Amino acid sequence: MLRKKALNRIYLTTLVLFVMLITFTFDHIKQFKNTNLVEVEYASNLDSTYIYLLNEDNYLVRVSILLDKNTEVKKAQEILNNLSVNNKKYNNLKGVIPSNTKINSLDYKDKILTIDFSSDLLNVNQVLEEKVIESIVYSMLELEGVEDVIIKIDGKNLERLEKSQKNLPSVLNKELGINKDYEINSLKDTKKVVLYYYYNDNNTSYYVPVTKFLNSKEDKVKIIIDSLKGNYFLGTNLSSYLSYKTDIKNYNLDKDILTITFNSLNNDNLEEVTYSLAASIFDTMDIKKIIFEVNDKIVSIKTNEK
């Protein structure tokens, strides 16, 4: 009899503990599910874009950030906050806009973003003066609806940089250039191309566009391919994903579609190679699609989405 009562108590205690365990687990699973739902909902309210920050070698480096889904004006404001020298989020990268710079107004109309700054914007040395403008313009052009940028200083269009005395067009776009490099010794056969290198910092790689001016009789596609095959941008810490050992068989441009054929290509960095080549060509020429082939077999297709 005593043994039966003891067994009943053990059974009852075990049952209670089991019920408590089930309840505890269910509540935590429910809480976990709710947490996931909140994260998914939060992520759906964000857009990704790129901004351009300065590295230790004074090159503007492309960095991915998240923005709240909002109007172009409010996104532009958020980007400008990230371009401030007060931005300490990224190791060895910094913003270029002086901390005391005020934004007098922001306006967006007909795909043109107009920003009116206080005169503090250009309170930098001559080396950084043009970098400030390049960083702002290229960061704003990453916004889907923005095709041109107008920069004003206290209500007046910025048409000349004070220290370098360089003239600026009243409406700014990628014709401005970024991280400019000049290899010009005459006015004949002058070409301008954009080359996408990468910069490695603490095992994190960033793309770095370089606008290069040079004398050459070659077409722009060949200039881009030959330049990026160099592996390194001489005299800098910038590298190319396209190895000098890469064997390119030929390329063919048919209207706005370019086909590049390789004899061989390392599959380990296929995406990086095709991306850097495509980005360089899209920023240089009016091309809509690039087809990459290895021995006449398509390995990648890139489309100019903007």
Structure commentary:
- Helix 4 runs antiparallel to helix 5.
- The protein has 306 residues and is an alpha/beta fold.
- It starts with a helix and ends with a strand.
- Strand 5 and strand 6 form a beta hairpin.
- It folds into 2 domains: 131 residues, no CATH class; 123 residues, no CATH class.
- It contains 5 helices and 13 strands.
- The strands form 4 sheets. It has a 4-stranded mixed beta sheet, with helices on one face.
- It is globular.
Distance between the termini: 85 Å
Q: What is the percent of helical residues?
A: 25-40%
Order of helices and strands: HEEHEEHEEEEEHEEHEE
Class from secondary-structure proportions:
alpha/beta
Give Rg in angstroms: 27 Å
In short:
By secondary structure, this protein is α/β, with parallel strands linked by helices.
Features:
single chain, 306 residues, alpha/beta
Q: How do the helices and strands line up, and which of them pair or pack?
A:
Elements: H1 2-43, E1 46-54, E2 60-68, H2 72-82, E3 103-109, E4 112-117, H3 126-141, E5 148-153, E6 156-157, E7 181-183, E8 190-201, E9 204-215, H4 220-228, E10 248-254, E11 257-262, H5 270-284, E12 289-294, E13 297-303
